[in-house]
Amino acid sequence: MLVKELNSLKLVFPDYIYGYYIPRLVHFLGRPIRHGGMFPIWHMRLFRHGHGRCESRQYDQHFYVKGATSRLANPMIDDHCMSLSEWVCRHNRWAEAEVQELIEPTKNGVIAGRTQGNPVEKKRALRSFYYRMPLFIRPLFLFLYRYIFRMGFLDGREGLIFFVLQTFWFRFLVDAKLFERRLVKVPK
User: Fold this and answer.
1) What is the pLDDT of residues 94-143, one digit of tens each?
2) Which residues 6+ apart lie within 8 Å of 19 measured at CB?
3) Residue ranges of the domains in the chain?
4) Helix or strand or coil: residue 127?
5) Model confidence over 75-91: pLDDT tens digits?
6) 3-state secondary structure of 153
7) Rg for the chain (alpha carbons), in Å?
8) Separation between Cα atoms, residue 74 and residue 8, nearest integer Å
9) CA 33, CA 35: separation in Å to the nearest integer?
10) Taking burial as the number of CB atoms within 10 A of a residue's CB, which of 20, 29, 136, 182 is the most buried?
11) Alpha carbon separation from 68 to 14, 16, 19, 75, 104 (Å, rounded)
């Protein structure tokens, strides 16, 4: 479906649109994760030649354009077809990058948070709220929010594993590494 939608844009890519957000659908342990605020997650993935830029952050980089944007209806599939061991290794590296970004934030070429902005700006605004909460408590709140209030439990056992690992374990690991860095000067 996404391929058909992309092909139709070859014929009609309006002059006033500089980029398109595409919804991302995560597949985890073979199951689409549709609840808990995980779908749709909007990513700028299609933009006019010469107009798209990528943030210079160390973690959670997003593409952006200066100008009007639109959204496509059909999702891109982000199939996490790796072992849990590989998933944990990658997230351990990403936790390090996020901690480094929190300690020494990138100043230029970064999308700022705005509650009334585009999907990425809204996400950044929510993340800034998250980081004002107390260390070690916020991962638990995030897990409860996504798994219970945003109904992540509807994604079955795979959803339980995903939300425990993504919203609790990973976020707790970021907090623990941040705490460690603040406690003692740990080499990067």
Assistant:
1) 999 999 999 998 888 888 899 999 999 999 999 999 999 999 999 999 99
2) 44, 46, 47, 48, 51, 52, 63, 64, 65, 67, 69, 70
3) 2-183
4) helix
5) 999 998 999 999 999 99
6) helix
7) 18
8) 12
9) 6
10) 20
11) 10, 6, 7, 20, 31
